[in-house]
Amino acid sequence: MTIDELRDRGVDVSPFLADFAELPGSVATLGYRPDILSATLGMWQAVMGAGSLPTELKYLAGYLASMSAGCQYCSAHTASNAAGGGDSAKVAAVWEYERSPLFSEAERAALRFAQLAGQSPSGVSDEDVHTLKSYYSVEEIVELLAVISMYGFFNRWNDSLAIPLEPTALNFAQSTIATHGWQVGKHG
After folding, report:
1. Dist. CA 107–CA 69, nearest whole Å
2. Residue whose C-alpha is closest to residue 128's, from 42, 35, 120, 179
3. pLDDT 10s digits, 63-97
4. Nearest to residue 120, comparing CAs of 169, 60, 70, 183?
5. How far apart are CA 32 and CA 8, in angstroms?
6. CB count, 10 Å around CB of 9?
7. Would you say 62 and 177 are in contact if contact means Cβ atoms under 8 Å apart?
8. 101-112, pLDDT tens digit by residue?
9. Residue 160, Cβ neighbours under 10 Å: how many?
10. CA angle (45, 80, 21) in 5-degree steps
11. Among the residues of the chain, which ranges form H helices?
12. How many CA atoms lie within 13 A of 61 on its CB side?
């Protein structure tokens, strides 16, 4: 479904277009149910467009959670968005977040939580949550978990439908994260 077709159905997709060079295929397919797309857009704005966590950290958490869940589509988008079209040093180093001097202890705790929750929510231990509480407020932990959970939804949506990856995210992923195990797979 195109942007014009979505607008004809009364759906404003501008919140997504603020973060993506092209309309994500998941948004286009969700457009077949405008009520679900509108709810998803509301969630997107509440999770990614508000709160106190840095946007870069949210996208890095989404990237680790998506890679841990095996979603190549969301991994490409979150990595590209974390770089913000510019600096990709943290994206390139994210798999070494435990040792890399690019990451603070607070970021390490958040990224560890994202990686574990992306693999399996039962993989998150009480100790992991306790460590998060050393650096983040309860509201920020809820915000972080909302990012991870929202990407869990998109991971399942995009992988189940084998949504083709858009050129901007595809090119970024091929040049930046392919060395860390990323591959386009069924999204090509």
Report:
1. 20
2. 120
3. 999 999 999 999 999 999 998 855 688 998 999 99
4. 70
5. 12
6. 14
7. no
8. 999 999 999 999
9. 8
10. 65
11. 3-8, 14-17, 25-30, 34-48, 55-69, 72-83, 89-93, 105-119, 126-135, 138-161, 167-176
12. 30
Given a contact cutoff of 8 angstroms between Cβ atoms, the answer to whether 1 and 28 are in contact is: yes
Q: Which long-range contacts (CB under 8 A, 24 or more apart) does 92-96 make?
A: 92/176, 92/177, 94/60, 94/63, 94/64, 94/180, 95/180
One-letter amino acid of 186: K
Interatomic CA distance for residues 45 and 19, integer angstroms: 11
Cβ pair 187, 72 in contact under 8 A: yes
Q: Is the pTM of this model over 0.85?
A: yes
Burial bucket for residue 40 (CB in 10 Å: 0-12, 13-18, 19+): buried
